[in-house]
Amino acid sequence: MIKQEILDAIKERGLLLEKEIFDLLNGFNDANAAKSFLIALEQQSGQKIITRSVLNKNFEFVKNTVGKLQGEDKSGIENIFVKLGLSLEVTKEKILPKGELNNNNSYKIFYSDTKSDKKVEVNDFVGNFRVRYSALQKILMQRSELKNLISINRISGERQALSIIGIVSEKRFTKNKNLIIKFEDLTGEISALVKASNTELFEKASELQLDDIVGVKTSGNRDLLFVFDIFFPDAMILEKMKFDEEVCVGFLSDTHCGGKKHLKRSFGKFIEWINSGDETAKKIKYLFFSGDNIDGVGVYPGQENSIELKSTREQYELLASYLKKIPERITMFMCPGQHDSSRLAEPQPIISKRYGEALYGIENLILVTNPAMVKLIEKDKEFKILMYHGDSISDFIREIKELREAKAFKTPAKAVKHMLKRRHLAPTHSSAVYIPNAEKDPLVISEVPDVLCTGEMHRADIENYNGVLIVTGSCWQSQTPFEEKRGNVPDPCKVPILNLKTREIKIFDFTDEKEIEEKGGIKIV
């Protein structure tokens, strides 16, 4: 319970506190420190009603104040910030039992503010595209191939060789089957022609999606440019990070707890294995759950006929019963997906405590947003893992010819490559529902990760792209009627395990074949 000194301060100063702020103050071991923090926050913000929004608007003050705390107060408050989903960079030291090879493991979590404090208007989307353009422009300006780089409004009427950085606003074919692309920057717009006779360039240009931001090497004047080459922002790691300790990381997604097709016995086999004396299981220190952790309620038409547990609370209670059996030495990170009790628009907030309360008592579970960057730390080394559920993957596969022809629904990591190529998780407007942010586009991949892990497609798949490891998650349900209608064939119960010392990755299969048969699933050969 909140200590009397804090309650007296609230009453004396006439304050109203959101429930989450009470939870935050409860995290202080020192009542005087909690009281001082509250009074300072009131004075800093000038507000009598203290909400999460007030904390976010006074980010630097909160960050500096928490940074000055010591010991248990600091670690406890930081942990509460994570669980509340507040936009605070968090560093939590991992306390390992005696006898472990390394007691310096820690992690940092980075994600954007997920709270929208005002009605979304058209100008907010314009602002979002502007900041996205500026972020990707800085990346593209480092490309040495873009000679004579100028803004569109400075292109003269005389023919010249030049380069621009533009966002694709329109694509159309001429009667001669050439391609005309309209590019925009912050100063204007211009059309550029790609000739069909240049096969390689034409294929690259055809791959461009609306709202892609690219560098273009051209010649021409303000009436029309002729394209010689196109450059994506692209992601690349020159030196792959490796830990000294043999630490392993497991990747799971789409558990879909609560559905009739949920594979309980198969997931039980995974839990039994991770608690066993298996050499790989004993090395696992982190697990990443990339969304759709429950089946949800009312997610798609007719879903009521496909769920066993009729409320999200019951579904999260089932999920929590599994997670409580995961060894406490393992830290779990979990982001939401479209089936979770979190708003659909990205960046998605952490799973709601209102429905997922059963998860909040699990000490080694860290709830994060979708997307989120988690940096695993060993001394001076950082291993960066970007989590994203993957709402945009299907859109990439539908719109890009190369992926359609490769039937990338069966090999989804090929689609995730295009996120890294474009340095954006959902570049085309409408490829994912999102909340526009005029200060920073949270779906821009501003920092290249060592691993990009996703879910959504229900198939484990591994790819490497310019040094970045791509891991798409399997699932823990057999084929549902809805998936059957869409032609999606899941490959369930697979868990990729990555060794951070060797970077070797293996996929472990925990399928209970009899359970698959009972659930009416399709066996993948």
Count of runs of 4 or more consecutive helical residues: 17
- What is the strand content? 15-25%
Q: What is the fold-level CATH name, i.e. the topology of the largest domain? A: Purple Acid Phosphatase, chain A, domain 2
Shape: globular
Which structural class do the helices and strands define? alpha/beta
CATH architecture classification of the largest domain: 4-Layer Sandwich
Quaternary form: single chain
**Main β sheet profile:** 7 strands, mixed
Low-confidence stretches: 87-104
Number of domains: 3
Q: Please state how the strands of the largest beta sheet are arranged side by side.
A: 3-4-14-15-16-18-17
**CATH level 1 class label of the largest domain:** Alpha Beta
Could you name the key traits of this structure?
525 residues, 3 domains, alpha/beta, 20 strands, seven-stranded mixed beta sheet, single chain, Purple Acid Phosphatase, chain A, domain 2
Which helices and strands appear, and what pairs or packs with what?
Elements: H1 4-13, E1 16-17, H2 19-26, H3 31-45, E2 49-50, H4 52-57, H5 59-68, H6 71-84, E3 90-93, E4 105-110, H7 122-140, E5 160-173, E6 179-184, E7 189-194, H8 199-207, E8 213-221, E9 224-231, E10 248-252, H9 264-274, H10 279-283, E11 284-290, H11 312-323, E12 331-335, H12 353-356, E13 365-367, E14 372-378, E15 381-387, H13 393-399, H14 401-405, H15 413-422, E16 451-454, E17 461-465, E18 468-472, H16 481-486, E19 494-499, E20 505-509, H17 513-519
Parallel strand pairs: 1-2, 7-9, 10-11, 11-12, 12-13, 15-16, 16-18
Antiparallel strand pairs: 3-4, 4-14, 5-6, 5-8, 6-7, 8-9, 10-19, 14-15, 17-18, 19-20
